[in-house]
Amino acid sequence: MPHWLQLMLDSFGPLLWAAVAFTAPLTLLSFAFGLTVGLITALVRLFGPAPLAAIARFYVWIIRGTPLLVQLFLIFYGLPNVGIVLDAFPAALIGFTLNVGAYSSEIVRAAIGSVPKGQWEAAYSIGMSWSQAMRRTILPQAARVAVPPLSNTFISLVKDTSLAAAITVPELFQAAQRIVATTYEPLILYIQAALIYLALSSILSALQVRLERRLGRYGGFIEARA
């Protein structure tokens, strides 16, 4: 068996374990928390009082205007200077959550803004409150618009988690780095890590296409009934 193939077979288990144990949880938790932050931020910017809306805009401006890697370094290496010490995984989770929250807030804000004002008026005309109209009428329609870009954000997040290796999170890419340090075969190991990321992204992209098709059929059904 060729040396490179044997090396890839031997390293596949540790790399896959790192992906399952760290990359996947970090991605899922960051996206879930980030989407929650994004929804709240979008609602504050659209409907909140001016001071809170200004704070939300400032948060989005800061996060979108600085590199994700710098944000991770500030949280993990910078906060200890002011007495806030975080382990690597929580620091990465906070960093990715804030980053996803800022970008997803713009997606959600645009999606809510795309819903015609007549939908608000129709909801109010049948006695719905603001919260009921938002929950039952506006958000379901906005979700159709938001799902494709949010899916792209999720796929990008899978790849961005490799940056967590820079703050010592033992995820997929750092697992590859550790094996490289003992085998001195960076080309083979980094290609293998890239292939695993590629496989994960390809699976998620296929699921995204299926989800968009289902939403498209659902949207067509709603429009036909209307």
Give your account of this protein's structure:
This protein has 226 residues and is an all-alpha fold. The protein has one domain (3-225): MetI-like (MetI-like fold), CATH 1.10.3720.10. Helices cover 84% and strands 0% of the residues. The chain is built from eight helices and no strands. Helix 2 (50-64) packs across helix 4 and helix 4 (88-113) packs across helix 6. The longest helix has 45 residues, at 3-47.
Sheet bearing the most strands, described?
A: none
* Count of domain modules: 1
Provide a count of the helices. 8
Helix content: over 70%
- Which architecture name does CATH use? Orthogonal Bundle
The name of the CATH topology is: MetI-like fold
Envelope shape: flat
Poorly predicted parts? 220-226
Mean pLDDT figure: 93
Order of helices and strands: HHHHHHHH
Number of beta-strand segments: 0
Q: What is the CATH class?
A: Mainly Alpha
Radius of gyration: 21 Å
- Which structural class do the helices and strands define? mainly alpha
CATH superfamily: MetI-like
Task: Tell me the distance between the termini.
Answer: 64 Å
Write a brief structural summary.
It is a multi-pass membrane protein. The chain has 226 residues and is mainly α.
Record keyword descriptors for this entry.
226 residues, mainly alpha, MetI-like fold, cell membrane, transmembrane, membrane, MetI-like_sf
